[in-house]
Each structure stands twice: as C-alpha cells, then as structure tokens.
Amino acid sequence: MDTAAATAAQERAMRRNVWLLFCCQALIHATMSGQVTMAALIGHTLSGDKALATLPVAVQMTAVMAASIPAGIVFSRLGRRAGFTLGALSSTAGALLSALAIWRADFLLYCVASAFVGGGFGIGQHYRFAAAEVATPEYRARAISLVMAGGVISAFLGPELVKHTRDLGAPYLFLGTYLALAALPLVCLGVLAAAVLPPPPAREKAATPIGTILSRPAFVTAAVVGLVAFGTMNLVMTSTPVEMTLFCGFAFSDSATVIQAHAVAMYAPGFVTGSLIGRFGAARIIAAGAAMTALCVAVGLGGASFWHFAVALALLGAGWNFMFVGATTLLATAYRPEERMRAQAANDFIVFGTTACTAFLSGVLHAKAGWAGLNLALLPPLAVALALLAWFRRRQRAAAAAVAPA
C-alpha cells in the first residue's frame, strides 16, 4: 500500500472511531438528560424540606467530581476501555437504585442512587478526551466538538424517554423511566466494543509535580472557563423544571420540552464549534459563549412565558457549548502527552466540584432569592472568566513578541 493510500486508511479509521465515540457520548448523556428533566421534581416530592429539592442533583455532580481522580487512575493503568466500562455499569446501577428509591419513597436512597449516576457520567466525560487522543492534531478541535455533539441525540432521547415512560410504573411516577434508562449504558458498551482506543500512556519516568501542571496559565484559564461554563449553566438549568411547574403553572411536558431545547442547544453547535475554533481561535469562541450566557439572563428576567424559558435556556445551552468546547481545546495545550491523564483528571475535579456546589446552591438561591436572583448570580462568574481570558491572551501576545525575530 502506498503512502497516500495508507494515510487515507488511517484517516478513515480515525473518523470511524470518532463517530463511535459520538454514539457512546449520546447514550451516556441520554441517561443524564433524562435525569435532569425529573431529578429536581422527584427531590421536591420526596424531601420534606423543599430547599433540598436539588440535593440529589448536587450529590450527582459531587459524584461526577469524585469520579475524576479514580477515573484518571483506571484510565492510566488499565486503559480507556476498562474505564468506560466501569462508568457504564455505574450508570446502570444508579438508574436501578433510583427506581427502587421511587418505589420506596426514600429520599436518602434517591440521593445514593444519584451518586452512582453521577459517577458514570463523570467517567463518560472522558469521551471528549478519548476523541482528542484518536484524532490528528489538525482534526483535534473538530473531534472534541463532534463527540460532544453526540448530546444532540441524548437531548431528544432522554426527555422523550421520560415523557413516554413516566406513567409506566403507576402509581409510582418515573419508576418505569429509570428501568428504561438502565438499558442505555449497556447499549453503549456494545458500541464501545467496536471502537479502537489508544493504549494507556507510558509511565512518566520523573512525574511532573501536579502543582506545576495546575499553575500553567493555559491550565488555569481552561479550568476556570470550564467551571464557569458548567457552573452557570447548572445553576439555572437545575431549577428550571421547579420554577416552571410549581411556580408558573406549566405542565410537566412543557418543562421537559424546555429542557430538551436546552440540551439540543448545548450539543448541536458541536457540529461546527470545532471549525469555528480553528478559524477564530478558542479565546474568541469562549468570549462569544459568555455573551450568549449573559443574554440568557436578560431574556430570563424579561418574562415568564413558555418562550421566555425556552429561548433563555437555549441561549444558556449554546453559551455553555462555546465556552466548554473552547476550554477543552485550550486544556489540550496545557500538558505533555505523558501528563494528560493527571491533567484531565485534575481539570474535571475542579470543574465538576464547582458544578456540584452550584447544583445545591441552585435550590437554595431559588428558594431564598427567587428566579430573578438566581439568574443575576450568573453575571459575576462570567466577568471573572472574561477577565482571566483577557489576561491569558496578553501573556500569549507577550510570549509571541519575545520570540519574534527583531
């Protein structure tokens, strides 16, 4: 086989792997998008203290954070396949435990089940890193954004599954839904079996101190932008079903449709975000995402109609996509190949630790400050992210000027 033919075959294999990872991402995220549609409502029903309505979501996101470090260890020692298998089994266990918690009307057990769901989702977040590893450097941003675009399928699959199965376990609302969701990670394992994944990275002879990695400007900027993207998105998204159904009088199907529109807006831009980053750079795309998130606040404060909620949540989702894909692309420049597992685990620990806090804070803010106060809380962290991005850009320009020929 000549060189051109071999190169073409390698590119086809790479694209095939990326598309398989796209499907895996879609299936794992469908479990989460379904969970988001109903978790706060179930929490509100099962908990005696309504301020704890979003506690299951907070537990879930804490588990996403807690899974980051163990996942990094499993990935580095046993490889991507073993880690993703563990994540899928955790998601299935979480769905089955959630069904049991609903049957028993047990809020504590529902929180425990949410931890298993979160652990599986946390491990599933590494599909975007696996995409970066199987792609060539030129295709890396597109591979990351494409795999994350798998969430478009989950945006329809998860909420639609909730709508059509919520009464199957009557009189136990949503029990049938969790039994259905338990099957999706198992299907994911079947798809994963067809993918060719990279082997575990070579062990570092002299490991770079983690503090050195964390202090690099690219890492700091990527981590902060990522945590602001996820934190601001989670703050509003978590309380939206409660605000719509319990305070504004909308039907459950209306809030599910809004969450569905939000999820589509989160992932649909992934088909083009990578190309936009390649053309305009990660920093400009991140700034555009922050602007869309700020616009979400303006729309959210403008009224309480169905379309105010739908448009605001769509802007929130698109803003998250631009910020998070940009941050993930930037993160890939912050470490050497042998450092990637530790750097990725540390990044996700930071990002999802903040997300866990915002999930709990969402219920508290909503109960104490109302919908307006909840929305306004997005603006300060957005300002911090933009200021840090400007600082990083100045450092980049200064470094480029220092090495430019006289």
TrEMBL record:
<feature type="transmembrane region" description="Helical">
    <location>
        <begin position="345"/>
        <end position="365"/>
    </location>
</feature>
<feature type="transmembrane region" description="Helical">
    <location>
        <begin position="257"/>
        <end position="278"/>
    </location>
</feature>
<keyword id="KW-0812">Transmembrane</keyword>
<feature type="domain" description="Major facilitator superfamily (MFS) profile">
    <location>
        <begin position="218"/>
        <end position="406"/>
    </location>
</feature>
<feature type="transmembrane region" description="Helical">
    <location>
        <begin position="107"/>
        <end position="127"/>
    </location>
</feature>
<dbReference type="InterPro" id="IPR036259">
    <property type="entry name" value="MFS_trans_sf"/>
</dbReference>
<dbReference type="Pfam" id="PF07690">
    <property type="entry name" value="MFS_1"/>
</dbReference>
<feature type="transmembrane region" description="Helical">
    <location>
        <begin position="55"/>
        <end position="75"/>
    </location>
</feature>
<feature type="transmembrane region" description="Helical">
    <location>
        <begin position="178"/>
        <end position="197"/>
    </location>
</feature>
<keyword id="KW-0472">Membrane</keyword>
<keyword id="KW-1133">Transmembrane helix</keyword>
<feature type="transmembrane region" description="Helical">
    <location>
        <begin position="313"/>
        <end position="333"/>
    </location>
</feature>
<feature type="transmembrane region" description="Helical">
    <location>
        <begin position="218"/>
        <end position="237"/>
    </location>
</feature>
<feature type="transmembrane region" description="Helical">
    <location>
        <begin position="285"/>
        <end position="307"/>
    </location>
</feature>
<feature type="transmembrane region" description="Helical">
    <location>
        <begin position="139"/>
        <end position="158"/>
    </location>
</feature>
<dbReference type="InterPro" id="IPR020846">
    <property type="entry name" value="MFS_dom"/>
</dbReference>
<feature type="transmembrane region" description="Helical">
    <location>
        <begin position="82"/>
        <end position="101"/>
    </location>
</feature>
<feature type="transmembrane region" description="Helical">
    <location>
        <begin position="371"/>
        <end position="392"/>
    </location>
</feature>
<protein>
    <submittedName>
        <fullName>MFS transporter</fullName>
    </submittedName>
</protein>
<dbReference type="InterPro" id="IPR011701">
    <property type="entry name" value="MFS"/>
</dbReference>
